[in-house]
Amino acid sequence: EPYPYGYHRSHTTQQAVALLKQQEESSQTEAPGISLAGRIMANRPMGKISFLDLRDGSGKIQLCFYKDRLSEENLELFQDLDIGDIIRVNGRLFRTKSGEPTLEVENFTMLAKSLQPLPEKWHGLSDVDKRYRQRYLDLIANVEAREVFRMRSQIIIVIREFLNQRGFLEVETPVLQPSAGGALARPFTTHHHALDQDFYLRIAPELHLKRLIIGGFDKVYELGRIFRNEGVSTKHNPEFTMLESYEAYADYNDVMSTVEQMVS
Which ranges of 58-142 would DSSP assign to H, the alpha helix? Predict the structure, then answer.
């Protein structure tokens, strides 16, 4: 079965590297068996031994396959392994003479077969247009792209924590609106068939947030998607994430102070 329903691994690659370090510090003589899962990123055959790089969402680790120790079924499956395949491996950790954390594979299972070749290893995905249009390839090929996603996620977490700690209430306002308001921008238009009425994707959450202030909330904010039917460039996108907040009994000096503290 090249596409099984699922698999529960015992460790991530990052946890496996940390476990190996713990084993070495405790002078543990026999390494416990662990299981990993990830994508094959490199294959370096050396006679009866092959070294593969396995990568998951946390990092990368080297795999060591002794072909004469694999079962007949695994050996046959090993001949069909390609760069990009996602596999499950069971084995024991050790460190090579060069100091590389490595898992000696005792058995493995195919989790997902790669049907298309991955971008070339050393140069990654350099076509800018393809990087933007096929983000999944960009994420596979470029470590820097994945770090941008992680950094963005952390920034959003910090912004939410900052505002929540200062008494702001996070809210969600309508994305589909009967009229486009809150900013000077051309909206995207759609049609609601049940109501037989045109609606607009919001160009700003401003009006609904102000209504919540009128309704009695002192501090509100929304971090959500905004849509503006305008030009496209590296500095402007028709769909983007915007933070907008409002605070009762505060003036622009208070807002300036809040923003300065948030970004400092």
Answer: 72-78, 128-133, 135-141
